[in-house]
Write a structure and sequence with these properties.
842 residues, 5-stranded antiparallel β-sheet, 4-stranded antiparallel β-sheet, 27 helices, 13 strands
Length: 842
């Protein structure tokens, strides 16, 4: 649990592995997922490393598996996921895997080629069948009309005068070609024939009713049968060129009806035989794919594990004897024993007799940041890491964010009804966690929602609580405890005077409302005026407490890193500045709430309560309250002060707070200069004694100047850094306090939008009566529910989420969080497999 508040303690280790045992040991470490290896060969090209051939073999196996997976998906065969996690195979098993994948790929490619050839032949026979049928229908139509088909075509192509002229010379011989073309190319094909042949051809076409399968792509295409009549070899050549250009397929078609019928019967016989062969081919292909689908998930896991192991081994160094591999790695200190046990298991698996050696090393490099998380804290830690990974051993904001994030969100999203919808959605994702995780969806938006299921769950739960405090449920109120306001007017006064005021009942004069807001405020016209003051003040109070807590968390960092100067020169003045100015303003709010009420009279009555904002401005500007003349003083019992001695206390607080500014600006650089000066004097004194006693030469003048110049640069950087830090904190205290007013603004906006949606949509459904009113209410409710979920829950929820995220990143974390570290990325098979599954293959 300690690593949740602060990152794990890490150490740099050197690992010595025997060459025969390296593969098995790295495999065990990959299953463990607690070691981050460093690249000891940064200048060596990836193609020149020792295990590059093994990596290439793994790439080739992975390519073959992707091909198998593609064919399995194309066939629609399910790939069962048993959930098994097989261990990485031994290097000698790679040969068996390669042989298996090679055999499956070759067999599948051969089956696909044969199937494609059979489908192409089947397509040609099918097209020829349609050509014979359509042309037979056309010739039959001409014969039933009492015309010879050739004579009919002649009359269509040649005028009557030319016919008489041709008949004197001899009979006219017409040729024809028949084929199939894509249906969408028919208009352009017809125009091209007409223009190229100058109208001297006759085209007839008929659509094929059923779609045909393209053997190359597997797509369904629609085609048409055509027949073209022409005269002469020149037109024949031209027609064939045009058909070739439009990728039309030409087929032989006999002129005699008997020949066409005989060919048609032969085509039908061949089609039946092809159907039988195609069915057997598809069955064989399906059996191959079903057998491969049972193991393809495990095969992918094995190959990716082998590839990851060899990639990791390429990061190691070989010693001079070529019998030992040397690695450097970051490991958590608490897990060293677990890692040593894993190395021991790997050595036993490999059969090696030389045990691995794991030595801790001293390093001046900043270790990686590692925060242990579980499925609950993982989402909150992701929010923090999105801003910046924590510096090593820096305080982690995630455990505090678990409470503050949903609470500040709920302050802006305070509605019990909308919070209930969000709560139920989060609860459903939490309860269905295992089956939803097993689905492994590729939808990025869904994965974001599911990854933050516990955040959504808590945001909905906290929103229900704040909505109960606001007494707001879909812009309506719950009358649980009744109203404490008393109506002392009759019916006529209430309906003629809209601005009538109610008096608080005797219960209000004794104790406040039990919990939350009185439901009567939902009906009042001055509800916004009342809620403005209420929500604005609680926003400031929550903001000051949140920022002050951030400063206190920074104290933990100073104590852990033993930076006592930062405690004296930064933490103490920061707390004083924030407390004496802004925390005092919050104290005035509580004094005003408790001192001024309707029960009190004279100077503590409700009309005498001073403005907190005006009081705070006058306090900072050292401005005394306006003195009233003696006549008004007699008639006006109100006082500018809330308690005795307030003016003097405020001046004292402001003076001390302003003195904290030079304290933050100058104290740290001055203390640093003094400590360096003392250190410099001690060094000079020790060198003088050494000169006298040992005859050691004095320090060179140029060397002293260089050291002094370096000191001056360091001091100047400290002054600049401290000045920036001071200005940022002082101005940020004001701007960050104002930034927390977004809690008030978004809360009012959400409440008003909810009320507008109810008044403009839902109220209209309650006007109608009778059976028609029920139907109309059902329609209006559906429309109102869609708008409520789409606008108020999703859009307003996302807006409040982003504003809450900003309050944590900027206003809260800036008080103590540097976020300059880098994350711990261990060698883990689980992470590698998850990233491989989430990356779509091209």
């Amino acid at each position: 649990m300690g690593s949740l508040f602060r990152s794990e303690e890490m150490t740099l280790c050197q690992l010595f592995l025997q060459s025969e045992a390296a593969y098995a040991c790295v495999s065990e470490l990959g299953e463990l997922g607690l070691v981050q290896f460093r690249d000891l060969n940064p200048d060596v090209n990836a193609f020149q490393r020792k295990f590059v051939n093994e990596v290439r073999r793994c790439d080739e196996m992975e390519r073959k598996l992707r091909y198998l997976e593609k064919e399995i998906k194309k066939d629609g065969t399910p790939m069962p996921d048993s959930g098994e996690n097989p261990e990485a195979p031994q290097p000698r098993e790679m040969i068996d895997l390669e042989a298996t994948f090679e055999k499956l790929e070759n067999e599948l490619r051969e089956v696909n080629q044969n199937a494609e050839a059979l489908k192409r032949n089947f397509l040609e026979l099918t097209e020829l069948k349609h050509i014979l049928r359509k042309t037979q229908v056309f010739f039959d139509e001409q014969e039933h009309a009492g015309l010879n088909p050739t004579e009919s075509m002649t009359r269509a192509l040649i005028s009557d005068d030319n016919i008489a002229r041709q008949s004197a010379l001899g009979p006219v011989q017409l040729g024809f070609v028949a084929g199939v073309i894509l249906r969408e190319r028919i208009p352009a094909f017809e125009r091209m024939l007409w223009r190229a042949c100058r109208g001297n051809v006759f085209l007839r076409q008929a659509e094929i009713d059923s779609a045909l399968e393209d053997p190359s792509t597997g797509d369904q295409v629609f085609k048409s049968v055509f027949i073209i009549f022409f005269q002469g070899d020149q037109l024949k050549t031209r027609v064939k060129k045009i058909c070739e250009g439009f990728r039309a397929t030409l087929y032989p078609c006999p002129e005699a009806p008997a020949d066409r019928r005989e060919m048609s019967m032969g085509v039908m016989t061949r089609i039946e035989d092809l159907n039988t062969v195609l069915g057997q081919t598809q069955d064989h292909r399906h059996r191959v794919l079903v057998a491969a689908a049972k193991n393809i998930k495990n095969w992918f896991i094995k190959v990716r594990k082998i590839k990851a192991i060899y990639h990791t081994l390429n990061l190691f160094n070989l010693d001079v004897t070529q019998k030992c591999l040397i690695a450097e790695c970051w490991v958590p200190v608490l897990d060293i024993e677990t890692i040593q046990l894993a190395l021991r298991r790997g050595t036993e698996r490999s059969g090696s007799s030389v045990p691995p050696i794991l030595n801790r090393m001293e390093s001046f490099e900043d270790p990686p940041t590692y925060n242990r998380t579980n499925k609950f804290t993982k989402g909150f830690q992701a929010l923090i890491d999105a801003y910046g990974v924590a510096t090593y051993r820096e305080m982690n904001p995630a455990p505090y964010t678990i409470i503050t994030f949903p609470f500040l969100f709920a302050v802006m999203f305070g509605d019990t009804g909308h919070g209930l919808l969000m709560f139920l959605f989060g609860l459903w994702m939490v309860l269905k966690e295992k089956p939803l995780t097993a689905q492994k969806s590729d939808n990025e938006i869904w994965n974001i929602f599911f990854g933050g299921r516990y955040i959504i769950f808590l945001m909905g739960l906290f929103s229900m609580y704040t909505g109960f405090i606001y007494n707001d449920v879909f812009s309506k109120s719950l009358n649980i405890f009744g109203s404490y306001w008393v109506v002392n007017n009759d019916w006529h006064d209430i309906h003629t005077n809209k601005s009538i005021s109610l008096n608080p009942g005797p219960d209000y004069l004794q104790y406040p409302y039990p919990i939350g807001m009185d439901p009567v405020w939902q009906l009042t016209e001055n509800k916004i005026i009342f809620l403005n003051s209420y929500k604005m003040k609680i926003s400031i109070i929550f903001g000051i407490i949140h920022m002050l807590f951030g400063v206190l968390v920074g104290l933990k960092n100073h104590l852990y890193f033993k930076k006592r100067q930062n405690i004296i020169c930064e933490f103490v003045p920061q707390v004083i500045f924030l407390t004496f100015l802004f925390m005092y303003m919050c104290l005035l709010m509580f004094i005003k709430w408790t001192s001024y009420s309707a029960v009190n009279e004279e100077k503590y009555g409700p009309h005498c309560a001073p403005s907190i904002l005006i009081t705070f401005i006058n306090m900072v500007l050292f401005k005394s309250p306006n003195e009233v003349d003696s006549e008004n003083a007699k008639n006006d019992p109100c006082s500018e002060f809330m308690f005795a001695g307030q003016f003097g206390i405020q001046r004292f607080l402001v003076v001390i707070a302003f003195l904290c500014i030079p304290w933050m600006l100058l104290a740290k650089p001055i203390l640093l200069m003094r400590s360096r000066k003392q250190h410099y004097q001690l060094n000079n004194h020790g060198q003088e004694n050494g000169d006298v006693e040992g005859g050691v030469g004095a320090m060179q003048p140029n060397q002293g100047l260089a050291m002094g110049h370096k000191e001056e640069e360091d001091i100047s950087e400290v002054f600049i850094h401290q000045g920036i830090h001071t200005i940022e904190y002082v101005l940020g205290s004001v701007s960050h306090t104002a930034s927390y007013l977004r809690l008030w603004a978004l809360s009012l906006a959400h409440a008003q939008l909810s009320e507008v949606l109810w008044n403009m949509v839902m109220r209209n459904g309650l006007v109608q009566e009778g059976w028609f009113g029920g139907i109309f209410l059902w329609i209006v409710f559906a429309f109102w529910a869609v708008l409520t979920v789409g606008i108020l829950v999703l859009m307003e929820g996302l807006s409040a989420f982003l504003h809450t995220l900003r309050l944590h990143w900027v206003e809260f974390q800036s008080k103590f969080y540097a976020g300059l570290g880098y994350t711990f990325t261990p060698f883990s098979f689980e992470i590698i497999l998850e990233s491989a599954q989430s990356t779509p293959e091209e």
